[in-house]
Amino acid sequence: MSILTGIADGLGLAARMAWETWWALVLGFTLTGVIEEFVSEEYISRVLGNDDWREIGLATLFGAASSSCSFTATSTAMTLFKKGASAAAALAAFQFASTNLVIELALVMWILLGWQFVLADFVGGLIAVGVLSILYKYVFPEAWYEAARDHLLATEEIIDPVCGMTVDPDAEDVVTLDTDAGTEYFCCASCKTEYQNQQETEGTDETDTWYDRLLSVTRWKRVVRTALRQWDMLWEDIALGFLVAGFVGALVPTAWWTTLFGFGTGGTLMWVLTGSIVAVLIAAMSFVCSVGNVPFALVLWRNGIPFGSVMSFIYGDLLIPPLVDAYRRYYGLRMAAAMVGSMFLAAVAAGVSVHYLFDGLALIPPTGEAGGTPPETYIVVLNIVFTPVFLVEVYVAYGPERIVGSVRSLPEMARRLPGRAKRAARTAGERLVGVGRTVWTALRRIGRASWLVGEAIWLAGRSAWLAGIAVYIVLTTPMRIAAAVAEVVNDARQRVRRTLHEARRLRAEAASNVREARRLVVEPLRAAVQTARNVYRE
Length: 538
What we know:
The chain is mostly helical. The protein has a domain at 3-156 and 216-408. Helices cover 79% and strands 2% of the residues. The protein has 19 helices and two strands. It has helices at 3-38, 41-47, 53-64, 70-82, 87-100, 103-112, 115-139, 142-154, 189-201, 210-214, 217-251, 254-260, 269-285, 293-302, 307-315, 321-331, 333-360, 376-408, 410-537; strands spanning 175-179, 182-186. It has a two-stranded antiparallel ribbon. Strand 1 and strand 2 (182-186) form a beta hairpin.
C-alpha cells in the first residue's frame, strides 16, 4: 500500500467516523448546555465542602452533568477547589466524571463501539472514582491539600471568567472586554459573548420558579450559547481525534499492535494488566482528550487489544502533557505528582476490574467487533434532523449579522491562512520542543527516582537478609545451647552409669576374691588347728 493510498484511506475512515457521530455530538453538546444552565457552579461549590461519600457521590453526579472538555473540567475543578470544595470531591470525583461519565461521550461510544462499552464506561468510571476517593480520603495527608490551595491562591493567574481557562494577556489572539470593574480577558470570542449575555441578564431571574426558568427564552438562548461554546472548545480535539484514528487505522499494521500489547498469554492477568498500562501511556502521549479519544479507542479495539485496556485508554484522557503541566501550575509539583499517579492507578485498576467483571458476565463482545453503529438509514435520518438543530443554534448564538460578516470574511481569512498556518506551525513546534524538554526532564527525574528506589530496595533487601540472619541466630542459639547442655548431661549420665557399673563389678570381684582367700587360707588353717588340737588331746 502506497503512502498516498494510506492517507486517502485514513481521511476516508476519519470522515466516516465523523459522519456516524455528527448527530450524537450535536445532541450531546445541546444536553450539556441545558444541564449547565440549570445547575449553577455556586450551588455545586456549596454542597461539596466535605469529603464524605455523600459529597463524593454528588460530585460524581455534577461532573457527569457538566462539560466533557478535559481542559474545562480541569479548570472547573480548580475553581471548585479554590472556593472551598474538598479535594476528594473536586479533584477526584468531579474532575474524573466531567470527562468520562458525560452524555456525549456515551453517545459517541455507543455509535462507534457498542452498548457494552457504554455500560463498561459507567461501571469502570465509578470504580475509578472509588479508587481516587479512597486515595484522596485516606492516603494523601490533609496538609498536601492546604499547601495546594495556598499555592493556587499565591500563583493565581488571569482566568477566563466563563470557562475558567488560563489566559495570557500578552498573547496576540487574546480577547478582551473593558468593564466597570476593569479589563476582562477571554480565551475565545464565544466566551466573551457568553460573558456579555450573562451580564445583561444577571439578576433578572433570581426569584423565578423552575417553571418560569424552563419557559424563559433568555435561559434557552444561554443554553444554545453554552452548547456552541462547547463546540468552540472541543472541535479541534474531536477533529484531531478522528484524523489520528483514521491515519493510525489505515497506516499502522495489526502486527505492530500485537507486538506492543503482546505481553503475556492472551486472556491472562498479565496480558490485561500490561495492556492497560500501555494503553494509558498511549492515551497520555496522544494529546487528544475526552470525546476525541473514542475513535482512537475503536482502532485499538479492532486491532485486538484487551477490552479492559480499551477502557483504560479512554480513562487516560486527563493525563495528557498540557493538563499535567496545568496541575503543576495550579497545585504545585507534589500535588501534581500525586494527582497524576492516582489517576494512572485508577485508570489501570478500573480497566482491569471492568474487564474481568464483564468477562464473568459474558458481556465482552467478540474481539475487534464494534456493533454499536446504527443502520445507515438511521444515521442519515438523524443527521438530517440534527443538522438543522445545529444551524439554528449557530443562528441564535451569533445572529445573522455576525454570520454574514463571517461568510464575507472567508476570502480574507483564506488569504491570511498561510501566514496563520506558519505561525501555528511555529507555535506548535515551540510547544512540542517545550513538551519534549518537559518530558525529558520528567524522564530524567523518573530515572533518578527509579535508581534511588532501586537502591533503596537493594538496601532494604540487604537489611532484610541481615535481619533474617540475626533472627536465625537469635532463635537458633538457645536451641543449640540447650542441645549442647543436654548432650553434656547425657554424657555425664552415661559416664556415671558406667562408673557405677564398674564399681559394682569390682565389688563383686573383691567379694569373690575374699571368699576364695578364705577357702584357700582360712579353711586349711582351721583344719590344721583342729588337727593340732586333736593331736594334743591324744
